Amino acid sequence: MKIVLGILCLILCCFAGYLISAKYKDRLNFYLDFKNFNDNLKKEISFSQKTIKQILLEKQQNNSIFYTLISKNILSNENPTNKELYFLTKNEIDEVLTYITNVGNSDKNSQLTYLNNFESILNEKVNVVKEEEKKYKNLYIKIGFLIGLMLLIAFL
């Protein structure tokens, strides 16, 4: 019975470590989608001159967190909840909301300038988030395993 309980604790701790590390994967996916959206928006504004609402309606089948967030905010004027963006800090949420409110509110040239300037910020952010994901994703899984292993040994 002790062995079964110890193995159960080991499995639960590994799973908890995996859940905690999922924050870094979600964060990286969010910023990669954000960067992709910014690049696509620059192309669409430069060449096809579609509105942001038209672009979002075309991309609605994309089920990523970023596209869902921006679609809700622009198409239906809903602000995201902290539960939806649990992997971002308060400053990052404010930065994303500022981006969303500034996009589509001026002429073509100033929009392209804004998007080009924001691209450098996004490139830097993606690099930082990739490094954090490399560092911490496996770390939390390993810590969960080690805590579970300690509990297994304690039960024996």
Task: Walk me through the structure.
By secondary structure, the protein is mainly alpha-helical. The chain has a domain at 28-136. The chain has five helices and no strands. The chain has helices spanning 2-48, 52-58, 65-76, 90-102, 108-155. The longest helix is centred in the C-terminal third of the chain and has 48 residues, at 108-155. It is elongated, with a radius of gyration of 21 Å. The chain starts with a helix and ends with a helix.
Care to give the gist of this entry?
The chain is mostly helical. The protein has helices at 2-48, 52-58, 65-76, 90-102, 108-155.
Q: Total number of β-strand segments?
A: 0
Q: Spans with pLDDT under 50 lasting ≥5 residues? A: none
What structural category arises from helix and sheet content?
A: mainly alpha
Which whole number gives the mean pLDDT?
Answer: 82
Shape category: elongated
The largest sheet, given as strand count, sense and whether it forms a barrel, is:
none
Strand content of the residues, in percent? under 5%
Order of helices and strands: HHHHH
Q: How much is the radius of gyration in Å?
A: 21 Å
> Distance between the terminal alpha carbons, to the nearest Å?
10 Å
Residues in helices, as a percent range: over 70%
Helices, by number, come to: 5
